Amino acid sequence: MGKHSYGVVLDAGSSGTRVYVYRWLKAAHARADASQEALSHLPEIKTKKKWRKKVHPGVSTYGEKPEDIGGEHLKPLIEFAQDIVPKDEVVNTPIFLLATAGMRLLPDHQRETVLANICGYFQKETKFLLPDCGLHVQVIPGETEGLYGWIAANYLLGGFDAPKAHDHGKGHSTYGFLDMGGASAQIAFAPNATETERHANDLKLLRLRKVSGEALEYKVFVTTWLGFGANEARRRYVEALQESYPKMGELPDPCLPVGLRVDATGAEIAKGAMAESSLIGTGKFTECLKRTNPLLEKDAPCDDQPCLLNGVHTPAIDFDVNHFVGVSEYWHTTHELFAMAHKDKAYDFTTYQKQVTDLCSRQWTDIQKDVASDKWGNKVDERTVEEVCFKASWLINMLHDGIGVPRVGIETGGAGNEMHANKTKAVVDGAKDRGFLDPFQAVDKIDGTEVSWTLGKMVLYASSQMPAAASALAVGFGSNEPGVAMPEDFQFPSSKLPIISNGTAGTEVEGQDWHDRLLSSSYTRRVPGIVIFLVILALAVYLLFGRERRFSFLGRSSPNTGANRRKQPGTLSSKLFGQPGPAYERVMEDGNPDDEFELASVSSLDGTSGEPNAPRSGRTSGWATPAHRGLSPDQSRSSPKSKSYVDNASAMASHTSIPNGLGVSAFERSGLGARTESKERLTLAPALSKTARSRAGSPRRSPLPYKANVD
Predict the structure, then answer these.
(1) Any catalytic annotation for residue 232?
(2) Residue 602 pLDDT more than 90?
(3) 114 and 244 housed in the same domain
(4) Are the C-beta atoms of 183 and 11 separated by less than 8 Å?
(5) Among residues 91, 121, 140, which one ends one of the domains?
(6) How many domains is the chain built from?
(7) Among 67, 143, 145, 195, which one carries the catalytic annotation?
(8) 38 carries a ligand binding annotation
(9) 606, CA 20 to 30 Å: which among 326, 339, 474, 588?
(10) Could you tell me the residue range of the domain that residue 16 belongs to?
(11) Residue 186 labeled ligand binder
(12) Are residues 301 and 415 in the same domain?
């Protein structure tokens, strides 16, 4: 086994599924010779660009044909992951498929069927660790997606590992997180102390664990705004535009470059082509900002003050200490065209708005020439430029009028932002050197690692793999209920064991997950006691089986026990393990010496001697009834298996065979007639040795009349 652990996460979005593979040091290796600083960090997660792969379309397109999702969609992703994870680590590598917006829109029965088929494919076709399909394969809500993103951003920026180096004031060291996709947008941040106390019930309790086993605990606000993603906002915008010009077939659109003609979906209409309804670009970006602003729904009723957008409650944001990073559309819209050569350039409102205004006011035919000449790089196509004017206006409105991010160079959010009052240069370089102290910064990668919510999921899981300190609670997240360490909705990174105790120091933690239970020091200290208890329990059960059953079991389980091996009678081992002593007699009920007889013993399991051709004779019933071995004289002399039975004269006399065909057991019949028949048959048996003795308490016996054939 290697020193690294691996994890696989599939991000099942609306347009496709992307697999990510992550790696980190196992606890023993991470702790070996680690400095105090290293022990105080979270596990170090590694990934590479070549460790991710995407396929199209999304899993939600399999709602009508869920049985095809394995072979058509998942197979190439699984094979890709299996090529990266070492073969001997696959069985220890957890796999997660977490679906987002597209799957949320499917009918319930289709969604459940798709998830069931995904789970079945993983279980049948892979050896990845999948202890709980319901937890490893699921549709996650927007709030969970936002929380994972918040974990990823703060993990990469260092807010968890080096809080003093990221002190934003008032003891605050974490960063806020903004994400915008096509259908929805999310926000996640840790409010200041005043807002945390005021809105405690609105926060999520998040618990991580350092390499040392000590817990890190945060209280985070997370919410999602459905319909506020870039594509859904565009759809709502077009509907509002059509209502503004109800009788016009061609609608003037200030959010398109001059002369660009598109349909309601945003697809370009070729020059000269006829269309029932179309939008024609006017390139007036200032008017575009005004038309997109009402889409924020700032006037929607707010039942739980304060609210930001669409009447959704959000604690007040203190921009003195809350500095946000934005991913997805926040980064693509601000950097793909306007800062393509400077990926780490800071967002500056004044400069950005001027750049967008200049681009959108140009003729579309001129812009097409720039695209053809790769002015913005070969990854920027015409559709990207077509959409940038609307997306830029929507982003600016969301950031500044919606969320309230101060406009650097124009507005300040408090004393912490006064340093930015005079920064009006085009783009502020070296954002990371300032520790992202601007109110907002768009990012795609930090130190070469993509800021993805899938990384946040893996940070949560990897930290749960670190053995817990004695008082550390379980890793995961749930509702923040004051005074409650483990809320009922607490979600673990993977499967959990049943609740054992109440979470006090030095005991198993209530709701602690299965990794924590097995790896925690308190559990480990109890292992010897558990082992001793199990040994005593097994011994008690073994003794209750009875000597004959124990002997039968041993005879079947080992070639050197039971019928093929004898120990001297009277030893402790024979009493414990059921190995029989010397043959003894069974006294008949009437006590008549003439009716007494004795049989040599055979295995009580099947009545055979263990030899291939031995006759089935001497079968008995009852616990202590001896059985007949059924060995022929030749077998007794020559068979290696019978050697132990003829080592002394007494044993030879006791195990002399009954001739073939005469070894029918008296106990296969019943009643007095059976005993009489047995007596008649046994007159042919060999005489007992003079040294043979009855067990204590048996009536004195006289030999049965028998004439031995001395020839």
Answers:
(1) no
(2) no
(3) no
(4) no
(5) 140
(6) 3
(7) 145
(8) no
(9) 588
(10) 1-140
(11) yes
(12) yes
